[in-house]
Specification:
Strands 6-5-4-7-11 form a 5-stranded mixed beta sheet, sandwiched between helices. A 5-stranded mixed beta sheet has the order 14-13-12-15-16. The protein folds into 3 domains: 82 residues, Arc Repressor Mutant, subunit A; 123 residues, Nucleotidyltransferase, domain 5, CATH 3.30.420; 160 residues, Nucleotidyltransferase, domain 5. A hairpin with a 2-residue loop joins β13 and β14. 38% of the residues lie in helices and 23% in strands. It is built from 12 helices and 16 strands. The chain binds zinc ion. The site of zinc ion has 5 residues, from loops. Zinc ion (ZN) binds next to loops.
Length: 395
């Protein structure tokens, strides 16, 4: 459906031959191989490998990189992946700030710029800002336009990625924002994804758990977003709303959530939850979790107690996720991660308190290696999928 928006030389149809796609995918992972090795690994004939490799070299995606050791006869030519052959953009839209990155095919961040967002409702204005930054980056890097695969947007809310619509973002106070206009303004293929799904996707492709089948990514920021990866596929559900664990009820008739419901997990276990927990004890509103943790490190009793209460709620949600999905990994992301030394042992004790269902080690809990970059790198991968990823990675 994006075909009409694609630049002329790149698109879903460019690499029609799935053998070419498989060869490119293999070299993306292995960096360089001889034609003989490629043929062996993929079960292809040498002429098929040669023909496809020639096409991919003509596209600039592969190159010859010297010769390997001979086993007698001619030395084999080594074929190498060219990460600088194409480029992708990731855009993160948060309440007050946007961020644009430009990456190569190895997800190396080449350009990185933040811009203020004054009025979220003025999506045309945001599109213009993003467009200007992208154009500047393209000019600075002197990249031909047909080498740009597209732009992925990471959005904090329910997203319909086929219709390019941000359906509902309670923490931004906006709903039903179409991104189709962005495609016209930018003149590039556009992809949108929920922030936590994007982070989960980024983790599964680039992060420390990329070999792991099943994980739940828990993004703890102003709210809580979660993304589910099952057997290496992002699980989004029938109506693309799966993984809204942030809005599962942990307290009947509890505090009111931005979504309109009561007692949602994110009210108690997001950054706001920690600041609120301190307020409940002291009637004092601290500006951020940084200040709470500063006081925790000073040994202030109210801060320590606020953190204890907060961790009880964080643990309850994590336990619920384990009971629901029994994942290999739960990956925690967000600002909280930088304070992991202050709370992680205590969190583990609370999650794995003696119970009849699971014990320590059944599910590994760890912190995102990609840190703040998980979602934006995740969405910058979306334009690359059609080029050389072997499946959609979404179920
Ligand atoms: Zn809620």
């Amino acid at each position: 459906m994006f075909t009409s928006l694609l630049p002329e030389t790149i698109g879903q149809d460019t690499i029609k031959d799935s053998n070419a796609k498989r060869i490119l995918n293999l070299l993306y992972k292995e960096r360089q191989l001889t034609k003989h090795e490629i043929a062996q690994r993929l079960g292809l004939s040498i002429p098929t490998v040669i023909s496809n490799a020639n096409d991919l070299m003509a596209e600039g995606l592969l190159e010859e990189a010297g010769v390997g050791d001979s086993t007698g006869g001619r030395k084999p030519v080594i074929i190498s992946f060219r990460p600088e052959a194409r480029f992708s953009f990731g855009v993160d839209i948060a309440p007050n700030e946007g961020r644009v990155i430009m990456t190569d095919l190895d997800s190396k961040i080449l350009e990185d710029e933040r811009f203020p967002i004054l009025e979220l409702r003025k999506s045309k204005h945001i599109a213009e800002q993003v467009s200007r930054i992208i154009e500047e980056m393209i000019t600075r890097r002197d990249v031909p336009r047909n080498k740009i695969l597209g732009v992925g947007f990471s959005l904090p809310g329910t997203v319909n990625e086929l219709e390019l619509v941000l359906e509902n973002a309670p923490n931004l106070g906006i709903a039903n924002v179409s991104f189709r206009g962005f495609a016209e303004t930018l003149g590039l293929p556009i992809f949108v994804e929920n922030e936590a799904n994007a982070a989960a996707y980024g983790e599964s492709v680039l992060g420390r758990v990329k070999e792991m089948n099943n994980l739940v990514y828990v993004s703890i920021t102003k709210g809580i977003g979660t993304g589910i990866v099952i057997k290496n596929h992002l699980y989004k559900g029938m109506n693309k709303r799966a993984g809204e664990f942030g809005h599962m009820t942990v307290v009947a008739h509890g505090k009111v959530c931005n979504c309109g419901r009561e007692g949602c997990w994110e009210v108690y276990a997001s950054e706001r939850g920690l600041v609120d927990s301190y307020f409940d004890l002291t009637a004092q509103t601290l500006p951020s979790i940084d200040e709470v943790f500063r006081r925790v490190r000073l040994g202030e009793s109210a801060a320590l107690l606020a953190l204890e209460t907060y961790l009880d709620f964080l643990a309850i949600g994590i336990q619920n996720i384990i009971l629901l999905l029994d994942p290999d990994y739960i990956v925690l992301g967000g600002n909280l991660a930088k304070y992991q030394d202050d709370f992680f042992p205590s969190l583990l004790d609370k999650v794995f308190v003696v119970n009849n269902f699971f014990q320590k080690g059944d599910t590994k809990i760890l912190f995102s290696k990609l840190e703040d970059d998980a979602s934006i790198l995740g969405v910058s991968l979306l334009p690359m999928r059609t080029l050389f990823f072997l499946d959609e990675k979404v179920v």
